[in-house]
Amino acid sequence: MTIDLGEIYRTTRLRVADIVDDSVADRPVPATPEWTTHDVIAHLAGVLGDVASGNLEGAATDPWTAAQVERGRDKAIAQLLDDWATAAPGFESFLSSPAGTNASAAVMDVSCHETDLRTALGLAPALSDEMLAWAAVTMREHFDTEVAAAGLPPVTIDVADFELFRGRLGRRTRDEVSAFGWSADSAPYLDIFFIFGPTDHPVGT
Questions:
Q1: Is residue 199 part of a domain?
Q2: Who contacts 134 (Cβ-Cβ below 8 Å, separation ≥6)?
Q3: What whole-number percentage of the chain has pLDDT above 90?
Q4: 0.90 surpassed by pTM
């Protein structure tokens, strides 16, 4: 499906900026148990800093993201948001271009962390149906490829787009994912279902 990834990223970034400040900097984020709200913002701002500097070796690994959090350690949330906003327009324009699909993981990341933050702050999810439909199609296609590569029979999963999105990105336990509407026994598929995770405890939304 066709979607403007740059616009999705921009609107998500602006929603995040509207809900965080230093008064919630130390709030634990259950979906990322080692991180506070400040750490999540440092990561999101740090991703674009690394993109701008070409520091992409080990992208999305724990050491890469941990370095982003550490670099932002002494900055106020307002400064981190300013850094993010300064770096964002060029990246968002790239995402809106035909080549932007190569960086679509950044849209998944910011959307996932927005929901992590909103859950931590007691706010309802705000992801659009358009974004979730795109993410679900992308994630189902990726999962089907992983299933085939593992030599497993094709399987379908009857579950809401939001749950698929949160589950594949590690915001659901194995038991929660097992309870999805699988067309076959889920057990052989769980090791390849999770892109990150699973979490070892329910995190809510």
A1: no
A2: 1, 3, 8
A3: 92
A4: yes
